[in-house]
Amino acid sequence: KEVRDVLAYLRVLANPEDTVPLRRILNVPKRGIGDRAEAMIDALSMREKISFPQALRRVDEAYGMAARSSNAVKRFNTLMEELRTIVESGAGPAVVLEAVLERTGYLAELQASTDP
């Protein structure tokens, strides 16, 4: 599971329009973006005839989304922009991977886990 999650982050960094891995990482680790928020973003993408990733970036236009969820999506968008900046700077794979693990909070979650 952990390897697939990290690969999903890397896939989204390589192709921000790749919806499948984007949906996988949207709330991994948990960041307050639940199924309802994801459904509202999906509804926005269908209503506006745009991709799910584009709708994610236009979260303010998602009708009825709780402020907490909207703010969580905005933080996720900012995080992904920061990670993309690292990729675009020409950083090597090890640096990008370390940034993903650290900045997403994934490494901290794994270290705190009692699951072997």
UniProtKB/TrEMBL annotation:
GO MF entries: 3'-5' DNA helicase activity; ATP binding; DNA binding; hydrolase activity
SUPFAM superfamilies hit by this protein: P-loop containing nucleoside triphosphate hydrolases
Xref: InterPro entries: DNA_helicase_UvrD-like_C, DNA_helicase_UvrD/REP, P-loop_NTPase
Keyword set, alphabetical order: ATP-binding, Helicase, Hydrolase, Nucleotide-binding
PROSITE patterns tied to this protein: UVRD_HELICASE_CTER
Gene Ontology biological-process entries: recombinational repair
Domain UvrD-like helicase C-terminal: 1-116
Keyword Chloroplast annotated: no
Alphabetical list of Pfam families matching this protein: UvrD_C
Keyword ATP-binding attached: yes
Cellular component annotations (GO), alphabetically ordered: cytosol; DNA helicase complex
Transmembrane segments: none
Protein name: ATP-dependent DNA helicase PcrA
